[in-house]
Amino acid sequence: MSQDIEATVLTVINRLSNGDAPVELGTPLSSLGINSVKIMQIITQLELALDFELEEEHLSMAHFQTGQHIVRLLQDKYHDTTAA
Q: What pTM value is reported for the model?
């Protein structure tokens, strides 16, 4: 599941970034021209692709600084979901 999350996050970020070069998980999203509007698009696309919904408490910009931050958030979310 972890690799699926990473691949999906990278695919979505690459689709919405302004650059032509592939993005790495550690790249700051702000350096890719990703603003708050694009963050909302990332969230929407990830929710659709991975079939989940982020809670309002998880919508802090601290979770969306890099792709790796997003991956950690989603791994925690999936872990919590599967543990229930």
A: 0.85
Q: How many angstroms separate the CA atoms of 84 and 80, rounded?
A: 7
Q: Which residues of the chain have pLDDT under 50?
A: 81-84
CA torsion 28-15-9-45 (nearest 10°) is 120
Question: Can you give the C-alpha Rg of the chain in angstroms?
Answer: 12
Nearest to 54 by CA among 30, 28, 76: 76
d(CA 37, CA 13): 13
19: its two tokens: 């650059």
| DSSP codes joined into one string, 1-25 | -HHHHHHHHHHHHHHHSS-SSPPPT
Q: Tokens 């694009």 sit at which residue?
A: 38
